[in-house]
Amino acid sequence: MRYSIGGEVVVEPGGSIAQAATADDAIILLKEGTYPGNIELRTEGVLIFGAWSPTKRPLSVIEGNVTVLGGANRMRGVKVNGRVTSNANGFSLAFSDIAKAIHADWVAADEIHAKEVKLGR
């Protein structure tokens, strides 16, 4: 698969993913390790690649929640030990492990019904 490159940022363990994701179309590469959570992605077209192993699965761990508000954001190969929440258009998450997910269904312009999904293995 080909990914368009807007700007590549490598984040070291313990570094701020949110700070790396301040520009639209950024590609963020996470090394193996743990990253602080409670991240809010407001930019568009951000791609987050975590370190990943076919036998050990995700090696980049986000400790906390991730909220995706900007459209067309993608996350690949991360483990989120919190909740992933998104009501943004075009968000995708693959090759990842997450503790919980919130899916928001738009019912009316001023009302959202959210369903919490408990995920596990």
Q: How would you portray this structure in words?
A:
- With 121 residues, the chain is mainly beta.
- It contains 1 helix and 14 strands; from the N terminus they run βαβββββββββββββ.
- The strands form 3 sheets. Strands 3, 4, 8, 9, 11, 13 and 14 form a 7-stranded mixed β-sheet that branches. Strands 1-2-5-10-12 form a 5-stranded parallel β-sheet, with no helix packed on it.
- Strand 6 and strand 7 (57-58) form a beta hairpin.
- The longest helix has 4 residues, at 17-20.
- It is globular.
Summarize the structure.
By secondary structure, the chain is mainly beta. It is 3% helix and 55% strand.
Total helical segments:
1
The beta-strand count equals 14
| Strand residues, percent | over 45%
Main sheet record: 7 strands, mixed
Rg to the nearest angstrom? 14 Å
Q: What is the overall silhouette?
A: globular
The helix content, as a percent range, equals under 10%
Order of helices and strands: EHEEEEEEEEEEEEE
Q: Could you say which structural class the secondary elements and strand pairing correspond to?
A: mainly beta
**C-alpha termini separation:** 27 Å
